[in-house]
Amino acid sequence: MRKIGFIGLGMMGLPMAHLLCEAGHELIVQDVNATAAERFAAAHPGARVAVAPADFGAAEVLITMLPNSAVVNEVLSSLVGILPQGAVVVDMSSSDPVQTRELAGKLAGAGIAMLDAPVSGGVTKAVDGSLAIMVGGAGSAVETVRPILATLGRVITHVGPIGAGHALKALNNYVSAAGLIATAEAIHAGVAFGLDPNTVVDVINASTGKNNTTENKAHQFMLSGTFNSGFSLALQAKDVGIAVSLGTALGQKMELGRKIEEITHDASAALGAGADHTELYRYVRPE
Ligand code: NAD
């Protein structure tokens, strides 16, 4: 059993930290939302809340599940000199790979190894521990934390050096956003033609247009009108932005990417901070 620091108890971090406690690990938790951390510790005998950075001084592994690179950088920079030599930091957030590489260099200078291990599968798979985890970093550090990651995910793929996981995650979410917007537009066009929206989704699911949105989001969160998948539109817009910036910096055209970035960014600004990403379904509907 390991001493694990866990920072970021939001939609994803909460069920992930829960599984780690269930597996018998000792957790030191923190969230800027103090109530979330206190509630978690109260419900888990193996967890306690970090009241000061020094409380992470005994963490062998530190997991972050935070909104973006800016927050990850701020949080981890404050722990340099506190985390013990030989600790492994695992950023499971969907962060910017370029910033991740820079941060890993800074941590390495303090004797701390860093991995990026973003996840795919959303809240449902975070709850049942079946996330897909894509890991970047040194093989020795990956093997050190593999048993911990195996508690959280079913498919764990070491995809390359530090930053590689974050790059692949952003690219995945770009493809996923493209599928979501195409699906939303297709349903609205089908309805305008007189088709039943449920039939549109069911037939696409039996055909070549099938994708994660048609299978796991269209009936569940869009046509039902619940729009509560647990993945915010703001986070999706961030991910598409990372993918487009990365591709552009590497000389790719990213023409579709730029359009999807514009749609997700504009939708997020129009629908507000609390909007779920499945609300793109109503955003792309003509007035
Ligand atoms: P969330 O907003 O629900 O959770 C983020 C948590 O971080 C919140 O509890 C917030 O209070 C906390 N936080 C923010 N700033 C902090 C700070 N300075 N110190 C400590 N805690 C701080 O987001 P989420 O949906 O859980 O996503 C977390 C990460 O996982 C993001 O990078 C996201 O892109 C990624 N992700 C989300 C999903 C999903 O379906 N929600 C799926 C895969 C990946």
Structure, explained:
The chain is α/β, with parallel strands linked by helices and 287 residues long. Helix content is 52%, strand content 14%. A six-stranded parallel β-sheet has the order 3-2-1-4-5-6, with helices on both faces. Strands 7-8-9 form a three-stranded mixed β-sheet. The longest helix is centred in the middle third of the chain and has 29 residues, at 164-192. The model has no long low-confidence stretch (mean pLDDT 97). It binds nicotinamide-adenine-dinucleotide. Residues 7-13, 30-33, 36, 65-67, 71, 74-75, 93-94, 119-120, 122-123, 230-231, 235 line the site of nicotinamide-adenine-dinucleotide.
Give the termini separation.
Answer: 56 Å
Question: Which word captures the global form?
Answer: globular
Q: How many strands, which pairing sense, and closed or not: the largest β-sheet?
A: 6 strands, parallel
Strand arrangement, major sheet: 3-2-1-4-5-6
